[in-house]
What does this fold into?
Amino acid sequence: MDPASENELFGTFVDAAAGGSEIFFVIIIVGLILGVLMVGVLVLFNGPFGRSQSRRQNSERRAEERLRQHKDLVHRIRSFARSRQEAVAQGIETPEAAASALQHYGDGVLDTVTISTRNVKQVDRVRSLVAQEMSRLRQSVPGVTSAHDCRGT
It folds into this structure.
C-alpha cells in the first residue's frame, strides 16, 4: 500500500469514528459489562462457593460409593455362607468342609479389606459379619462344631 492510500484509509477511519463516537462508546460499554458478567459467572461457579459445593458433592459421592461397596461386600459374604449351607443340606459338602470354606473365605475378605482400606472400623465390621455368618452356619447345620472363630477374635 502506498502512503497516500494509507492516509486516505486512516482519514476514513477517523471520520467514521468521529461521526459514530456514540456507537463506539456503546460498544465499549456493552463489552465491559459483558466482561464483568463473565468474570462474575466464573467466580460464582469456580470461586469459593463453587469449590466448596463441589467438595461437598465429591464427599457425598465418596460416602455413597463406600456405602455401596460395603453393601456389596455384605451381600457377597452372606451369599457365600448361604451357598455353603445349601451344599451341606444337599449332601454335596460335609459340615466341617463348609465351615472351613467359609472361614477361609472370610479370612481372605478380611485380608483384602485390611490391605485396601486400612480402616479399623471397616475391618471390625467385616470380622463381626463373618463371625455372625459362622454362627448361623453352626446353628443351621448340625455337626458344625470344629469351626474356629474368625481370625483376630
